[in-house]
Design a protein that fits this description.
This protein is α/β, with parallel strands linked by helices. 45% of the residues lie in helices and 14% in strands. It has two domains: 2-201, Rossmann fold, CATH 3.40.50.720; 229-435, NAD(P)-binding Rossmann-like Domain (Rossmann fold, 3-Layer(aba) Sandwich), CATH 3.40.50. The strands form three sheets. Strands 3-2-1-4-5-6 form a six-stranded parallel beta sheet, sandwiched between helices. It has a six-stranded parallel beta sheet with strand order 11-10-9-12-13-14. Bound molecules: nicotinamide-adenine-dinucleotide (NAD). It catalyses: UDP-alpha-D-glucose + 2 NAD(+) + H2O = UDP-alpha-D-glucuronate + 2 NADH + 3 H(+).
């Protein structure tokens, strides 16, 4: 089938590469000429395991084409995917300007029936706005062309995006038109062989499902972070509590890890956008507001712990940081907890030595001009000469470090573990001080 995807970011590129891998002819359109030039020259703009190979083999096979030519894209695909960003507006609402710009472009160039598939995360009612935008552009051309707008939210996780797309938990298709539902079902058939994962529903329910999923996951994290602060205050160990509650199948072990707050391009903005949507119709979503507030406080926690440990004397100190991306296996640093910490440390007069297995280029892009930041080629180099080590992102390679070497390299042998990934017994046995999230200080 012929497919066009607007937006070649984390979602658009993965969607395009996976649909091409299944044999479809895919055109990826982006407004960023540098990104398209990089993709056409065999490069890849993001770090996502397995993506480079998939993009390069399908590009070489001619099934995956990259272009900035929107008119060409609209002419190419029966399916017109919208996978552009929906960043938060100042009031927390989702900014739809990119989504509606694509809708207008489609209306300006389409001459035949098109299925417009909204993959971006958008508030309830956006499909109607997209349809109105397309209709207005068609009216301006004095033509009448049939089209459908489908909500098909994406549930992939950065770091496991290919696997999630190829073997999805569910494929949500929001449409009232049975003919369009069958077209989407056919497009997704290669990813739906084991058992039927396609869920056809009305458009508004599909749009809300995506926000509901992210808000639920964010709620689990904030709940555990709230509990970890209580555990610490009352002298309990949150890791024991976690195992204790996870054994109840109604609760389960997944996604109940305490830490230094959630970040990324989705949870923070989606929780805010859902709360904003509720407020706009006169409903105060108290739980969502609390989820966000708890997360904001948690993102400050590591800095508070470091500040307290040094009794506020941070000026002139150097702090080593392991992990800059908002979670492991990605280079994405949007709303990452590391950024909050680093900026607070600078504010307090401390310098930072940092390492991340994938996000060094992104850190360089964000903070490259800072004299109080040193990016090191590996984890141990970050520790050299630093006062303290802070683990912010739980990359696997940080989980069993050489404690003796860390102790030797640190001026003040202390580790702040923002993700509770280290074994406290081992850290303490190596003669290092250990401060983590909601755990007992001594095991
Ligand atoms: P991104 O910022 O990585 O990519 C968006 C791309 O769209 C950029 O390359 C940008 O240049 C391009 N773009 C902007 N306007 C355009 C236009 N008019 N025409 C063509 N291209 C245009 O964003 P992302 O992380 O891929 O997210 C896209 C959407 O998917 C968002 O709504 C997001 O909430 C949602 N989503 C993201 C994830 C994720 O893990 N990143 C997962 C599920 C859903």
């Amino acid at each position: 089938m012929d497919v066009t995807i607007f937006g070649s970011g984390y979602v658009g590129l993965v969607t395009g590469a996976c649909l091409a891998e299944a044999g479809n002819h895919v055109v990826c359109i982006d407004v960023d000429p540098d990104k398209i030039a990089l993709l056409n020259s065999g490069g890849i703009p993001i770090y996502e395991p397995g993506l480079e190979e998939l993009v390069s083999s399908n590009h070489a096979a001619g099934r995956l084409v990259f272009s900035t030519d929107a008119a060409f894209g609209v002419q190419h695909g029966l399916f017109q995917f919208i996978a552009v960003g929906t960043p938060p507006d100042e009031d927390g609402s989702a900014d739809l300007k990119h989504v509606l710009a694509v809708a207008q472009t489609i209306g300006q160039h389409m001459d035949n029936y098109r299925v417009i598939v909204d993959k971006s995360t958008v508030p309830v009612g956006t499909a109607d706005k997209v349809a109105a935008c397309v209709q207005a552009a068609l009216a301006a051309r004095n033509i009448d062309v049939d089209f459908d707008v489908v909500s098909n939210p994406e549930f992939l996780k950065e770091g496991a995006a290919i696997e999630d797309f190829m073997r999805p938990d569910r494929i949500i298709v929001g449409t009232d038109n049975p003919r369009t539902a069958e077209l989407l079902r056919a497009l997704y058939a290669p990813f739906n062989r084991n058992h039927d994962r396609v869920m056809i529903m009305d458009v508004r329910s599909a749009e809300l499902t995506k926000y509901a999923a992210n808000a639920m996951l964010a709620t689990k994290i904030s709940f555990m972070n709230e509990l970890s602060n209580i555990a610490e205050a009352v002298g309990a160990d949150i890791e024991r509590v976690r195992v204790g509650i996870g054994s109840d199948p109604r609760i389960g072990y997944q996604f109940i890890y305490p830490g230094c707050g959630y970040g990324g391009s989705c949870f923070p903005k989606d929780v805010r956008a859902l709360a904003h949507s509720a407020r706009a119709i006169g409903y105060e979503a108290q739980l969502l507001t609390a989820v966000e507030a708890v997360n904001e406080r948690q993102k400050d926690l590591l800095f508070q712990k470091i500040h307290d440990y040094y009794r506020g004397e941070l000026a002139g100190r150097t702090v080593a940081i392991w992990g800059l991306s908002f979670k492991p296996n990605t280079d994405d640093m949007r709303e990452a907890s590391s950024r909050r910490l680093i900026e607070a440390l600078w504010q307090a007069g401390a310098a930072v030595r940092a390492f991340d297995p994938a996000a060094m280029d992104e850190t360089q892009r964000l903070y490259g001009d800072r004299p109080d930041l040193t990016l090191t080629p590996d984890a141990m180099s970050a520790v050299a000469g630093a006062d303290a080590l802070v683990i912010v992102t739980e990359w696997t390679q940080f989980r069993s470090p050489d404690y003796a070497e860390i102790k030797e390299r640190l001026t003040d042998p202390v580790i702040f573990d923002g993700r509770n990934v280290l074994d406290p017994t081992q850290v303490l046995a190596a003669g290092l001080s250990y401060i983590s999230i909601g755990r007992l200080p001594k095991q």
